[in-house]
Design brief:
- The chain is mainly alpha-helical.
- The chain is built from three helices and two strands.
- The longest helix is centred in the C-terminal third of the chain and has 37 residues, at 56-92.
- The chain starts with 10 loop residues before the first strand and ends with a helix.
């Protein structure tokens, strides 16, 4: 929800959690994804939070870029759905 409103967001996950972690990688936010089952990710967490806090313009720009990527993919997906619906409607007439 944060990214959808251009608000930078760091995601912490554990092995039991999966889908949002996949999404963060897909939309280009992998450097804001921390797997707390991995010691190296735990060590990177505080520096990443501080960097984000000290560079708010950069962080917001990154959030905006991710939101635009998601919107582009949503439009592409809805175009496919629309075409499938139109094709289905033509067959039923």
């Amino acid at each position: 929800m944060c990214i959808g409103h251009n608000i930078p967001a760091i995601l912490v996950r554990w092995e039991e959690q999966s889908t949002k972690g996949y999404m963060w990688n897909t939309i280009g936010l992998q450097e804001w994804l921390f797997d707390f089952d991995k010691a190296e990710d735990i060590k990177k967490y505080v520096p990443a939070v501080l960097f984000m806090a000290k560079n708010p313009a950069w962080a917001k720009a990154k959030a905006i870029k991710a939101r635009k990527f998601v919107e582009k993919k949503q439009k592409e997906t809805m175009k496919v759905v629309r075409m499938a619906c139109l094709k289905s409607m033509k067959k039923s007439h």
